[in-house]
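Lab notebook page, bench 4
Experiment: in silico fold of construct C2
Operator: M.H.
Input chain length: 169 residues
Purpose: comparison with the prior construct
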Amino acid sequence: MSKAVVATEDSAPSFFGWLQVEKKVGQELQRLAIKHPSAMGTLLYLMNNMGRNNALAVSQAVIAQKVGIGRQAVSGAIKLLSDHKFIEVVKVGNLCVYRVNTRVAWQGKRGERFAHFTADVIAFEGEQTGIDLDEKTQLKQVPVLEGAERVLIGNEPIDPPDQQEMNLP
């Protein structure tokens, strides 16, 4: 049985431990840091927490808390970063996935293009409602076949059990 892992404020992603940045982008990053420090802080947060796919699904409220800026500043930073092609924002319902442009920074294959990707998702405990993470009640489990048991999918005919197959006291 897998155990739920809760991200705390001290949690650090277990990624590579290195990050590559395109040298040609250095001057743009320098200008971004001087003119828009909130956007630079937001970009660095995304870069430091993304996986090898350059993508991260995290709420703007968590980014704001981690970067130490306001929620509106993060919203403006995300728009600026997206407009200037530092990142792209992919919407999945109400969820936003932020993907750092691979011409800016990467941890996996450089310049990869995608139609489908995975993302590291940060679900911060403080944002959850209706979930008691300390509750000891087990979640319902999918039944597991044991021994000579078999799955019956439809109405296939089966022989009745033999008395020897049944463990009767």
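Observations: The longest helix spans residues 37-49. Helices lie at 26-35, 37-49, 60-67, 71-83.
Next step: discuss at group meeting.
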